[in-house]
């Protein structure tokens, strides 16, 4: 089955799911001068790279297993360095992008089993790429997971009809090479963290909905708590925001966004 992988040669060797597909956008840093009273002058500033959107999908055992699969994959990518990104399409055409760095990802679970992910990679422009490697096996099902949709933060229940998406946020700019082609991935990565966004429905009986949501945020508090759900525990998360949809009824949807250090 077609898939993808990322290997930085320094301990991170992960598969990126099935149906992996990369769409590269090439860019260069040209310099445009605008002399007064004269036409603009365009000068080659060197550098150049690829900004790639990579997709990946995987069917897992249940909702909790799929969420844990996404989380563990994102956590591995958050600690990775420059490496080889390989993708293989349905016709077994293979492409490898060397010296690539992962700068972000987002994933959510559909139909309680289907992990749907998108990754953002940067890669220098170069004349040749490495050869095809090996796609690692996917992790075994995680024990104790379920599809209970019983999310709670610090023991406080997070609404009903709950779902969650997971995001990896990371910064690793590529440094351009003056008067030459390509870029360098020599700068250390920074600001890496994971965001866990829980989307749920809030129902307030005989209580104003705004008061209910305010109390919910206060009960969770501005401290590190454990986010639990579907048999998983994400320890040490901090509530970053609680965003409800505007309504004058007793029920509304809201998103509780948590931040977790790597």
SSE order, one letter for each helix or strand:
EEEEEHEEEEEEEEEHEEE
Strand segment count = 17
Percent of residues in beta strands: over 45%
Helix residue percentage? 10-25%
| Order of strands across the main sheet | 1-2-5-8-7-6
Computed over alpha carbons, the radius of gyration is 22 Å
N- to C-terminal separation? 31 Å
- Largest sheet report: 6 strands, antiparallel, barrel
Low-confidence residue ranges: none
Query: What's the average pLDDT?
Result: 90
Shape: globular
Description:
The strands form three sheets. Strands 1-2-5-8-7-6 form a six-stranded antiparallel barrel. A two-stranded antiparallel ribbon has the order 3-4. A hairpin with a 6-residue loop joins strand 12 (175-176) and strand 13. It is 11% helix and 52% strand. It has two helices and 17 strands. The protein is globular and about 70 Å long. It is mainly beta.
Topology:
Blueprint: E1 3-7, E2 13-27, E3 31-33, E4 41-43, E5 49-59, H1 63-78, E6 83-88, E7 94-110, E8 114-124, E9 152-153, E10 156-157, E11 160-171, E12 175-176, E13 183-184, E14 190-203, H2 209-220, E15 224-229, E16 232-244, E17 251-261
Antiparallel strand pairs: 1-2, 1-6, 2-5, 3-4, 5-8, 6-7, 7-8, 7-11, 9-10, 9-15, 11-14, 12-13, 14-17, 15-16, 16-17
Top keywords for this entry?
single chain, 262 residues, mainly beta, 6-stranded antiparallel beta barrel, two-stranded antiparallel ribbon, globular
Can you summarize this structure?
This protein is mainly beta. It is built from two helices and 17 strands. The longest helix has 16 residues, at 63-78.
